[in-house]
Amino acid sequence: MARTSVHIAALIAASVAFACHAGAEELLPYNIAGDGIAESLTGAPGDAARGRALVLARTTTCILCHSGPFPETRFQGDLAPDLSGAGNRWTVSQLRLRLIDAARFNPETIMPSYYRNGHLVRVGRNFAGKPILSAAEIEDIVAFLATLRD
To answer: Residue 145 in contact with residue 84, Cβ under 8 Å?
Structure first.
């Protein structure tokens, strides 16, 4: 991995450590089928407005690497795919798995696995064993990303 990528990964890991929203939430079970997770983690669809707010919040780190159709947001990232058209490129099922565990698609990714608590590296003691986002936050972000169509 190039020195710049290592530095960026460390920056993201540090940012994510401060962003841990989920507290001590236990992971809810889910089933991976093919390249996605068809069932909502919560059993209900997420709220797209809350998902948009989460994507734009610096604490989730989405905007640190991704850009998108957010003209009001300065300093959007360019390390990861633009989120414009995400709802066309990926199904809800695929979006859900990408948020839960991006490393399933690319083991070298710098994108955090937002809903895992095991087999992670450089996790602060206070955050060990906890997901970064709650199941409801995952569903909210999925609902929002699914609305981003060209």
So the answer is: no
